[in-house]
Amino acid sequence: MSDDYEDDLEDEEFGDPTRVRQSSDHHHLLNVFRDLTLLTDTGRLDEIAGAITKRLADPWRRATEHDESDVNRGMVDWRVFERLADSERPGALLFLVPNRTEGNLYVSNIVPTEGHSLGVENYNEILVEFTDRFARPVADDRAIRCELTSDWVDFAGDLGETAFQALVAAAIFPTGTHPSDRERWMKFILIARQEALDVDLVLLARWLEAEGFTPRRASNLVEEYDFALKLLDFYDRF
Amino acid sequence: MAALAPDDPLLTAARVVVLDACSTLDVIRIPVRSEWSADAESVQQVLAIAGDASALLLSIPEAIEAEYQKHSQGTVEGVLNELRKHHNTVTIEARFMKDLLRRCGVTADELPTIDLPSDWAETLAAQFANLGADVRTKLTLVPHDEDDVTPAYSRIAKSRAPAVQGAVGMNDSTLCEVALRIARQRPPGTTGLLTSNDKDFRQSGSLHPQLVADYDAGGLVDLPTWRDALMFARAE
Question: Which ipTM score applies to this complex?
Answer without folding.
Answer: 0.72
